[in-house]
Specification:
Blueprint lengths: L4 H21 L5 H14 L6 H24 L3 H18 L2 H17 L3 H18 L2 H17 L3 H18 L13 H18 L5 H14 L5 H17 L3 H15 L5 H15 L5 H16 L1
Length: 307
C-alpha cells in the first residue's frame, strides 16, 4: 500500500478533532475512539512512502499516542497512560520532532504532578525544556516553566517556584505570532493566568496563606476568559479558586464557586475534576463549623459517589 500526504493529513485531522473533544467533554468521551484509531495509525506505517513522509507519519502517530496517554490519564488510568506516553516518546524521537517531545514530557510530568510526585515531574519538565530549546518554541518553554513552578511549589520551594513562574510570561510573550501546533494550542493567556493562580494556590496551601492574594485575581482572570469549548479547564480552575476562598475564610464565596465548579464538572467525563476536589475538601474541613463548609463537603461526597 502506497501512503501519500492525504493519508497522513486525514489521521492528523482526526487527532485534532478528538483533542478538541477531549477539551470539551473530557478524556472519557474520546478514549475509546482513540483506541480504534490507533491500529489505523500503526497500519499506515507499514505502507510504502518517501523518507520525509515516513518521518512525518512517525510524528503524527507519536501525537496519537500522546493524546491517548492524556485521555487515559484524564480518565484515571495512569499505568495505561504512561505506556502510551513512553511509546509517544520513542516515535517522536524517531521523527526528530523536538517540540512534540517537549509536549509529551510536559504531559507525562503533569501526570506525576497530579499524583503528587513532584521530583519525578521535575525531571520530565527539565528534559522537556531541553527539547523545547532545540525546537526553538518559546510557547513550549513557557508551558514547561509554569509547570516547573508548580512542581517546586509542591516541594515547598518558594524561591524556585516564583523564579520559574516569572519566566513563563516572558517566554509566552516571545511566542506571540508564532504558528502553534495543535498539541500546545490550548496554552493561551487564560492558561498562563490559571497556572500563575495554581502555583500561588499550592504555595498558599503548603507554605503561606498570603499567596491567596495573588492567586485569586489570576484564577478569576482565567475563569472569565474560558469559553464554552474549555469547560474542564474552567471547572478545574474554579475549584482552585474555591480553595483560596476557603483558605481565606470566605466560606460564602468558596461555596458559591465550588458548587458551580461541580455543576460544570458533572457534564465532563474526567477523573481529574473529581480528584481536584480533594484539596478543596482539605481546605474546607478547617472551617467545618461553618454551615457553608458542611454544605460543600456534602456536595463533594455526593458528586464523588455519583461519578
Amino acid at each position: 500500500m502506497r501512503i501519500g500526504q492525504a493519508d497522513i493529513d486525514r489521521l492528523e485531522g482526526a487527532i485534532a478533532a478528538l483533542r478538541a473533544r477531549d477539551y470539551r467533554e473530557g478524556g472519557g468521551s474520546c478514549r475509546e475512539l482513540l483506541r480504534v484509531l490507533e491500529p489505523y495509525g500503526a497500519a499506515l506505517r507499514w505502507g510504502v512512502m518517501s523518507e520525509p513522509l515516513a518521518r512525518r507519519l512517525a510524528g503524527v502517530v507519536a501525537d496519537l499516542h500522546n493524546l491517548r496517554g492524556w485521555t487515559e490519564f484524564d480518565s484515571g488510568r495512569p499505568v495505561r497512560a504512561e505506556r502510551h506516553f513512553r511509546r509517544a516518546l520513542e516515535l517522536a524521537t524517531e521523527a526528530g520532532a523536538d517540540d512534540l517531545l517537549a509536549n509529551i514530557r510536559y504531559r507525562l510530568g503533569r501526570m506525576y504532578l497530579h499524583h503528587r510526585t513532584p521530583a519525578e515531574a521535575l525531571e520530565q519538565f527539565r528534559q522537556g525544556q531541553l527539547a523545547a530549546r532545540r525546537g526553538g518554541r518559546p510557547l513550549s518553554q513557557a508551558i514547561l516553566s509554569a509547570n516547573e513552578a508548580w512542581a517546586y511549589a509542591l516541594l515547598g520551594d518558594v524561591r524556585q517556584a516564583l523564579d520559574k513562574l516569572s519566566l513563563a510570561p516572558e517566554q509566552f510573550a516571545d511566542s506571540v505570532g508564532d504558528a502553534v501546533p495543535s498539541w500546545s494550542a490550548f496554552f493561551t493567556a487564560n492558561d498562563l493566568a490559571a497556572m500563575i493562580g495554581t502555583v500561588r494556590t499550592e504555595l498558599a496551601r503548603l507554605v503561606d496563606v498570603r499567596h491567596c492574594r495573588e492567586a485569586i485575581p489570576a484564577l478569576t482572570e482565567a475563569i472569565d476568559g474560558y469559553g464554552p469549548d474549555m469547560p474542564r479547564s474552567r471547572s478545574l480552575t474554579m475549584i482552585w479558586l474555591a480553595v483560596d476562598h476557603a483558605l481565606e475564610g470566605d466560606m460564602d464565596r468558596a461555596a458559591e464557586v465550588g458548587l458551580a465548579a461541580m455543576e460544570i464538572a458533572d457534564g465532563i467525563r474526567s477523573a481529574r475534576t473529581r480528584d481536584r476536589l480533594k484539596p478543596l475538601s482539605e481546605s474546607v474541613r478547617k472551617r467545618v463549623g461553618d454551615i457553608n463548609a458542611r454544605d460543600i463537603l456534602d456536595r463533594i461526597a455526593t458528586f464523588r459517589a455519583s461519578a
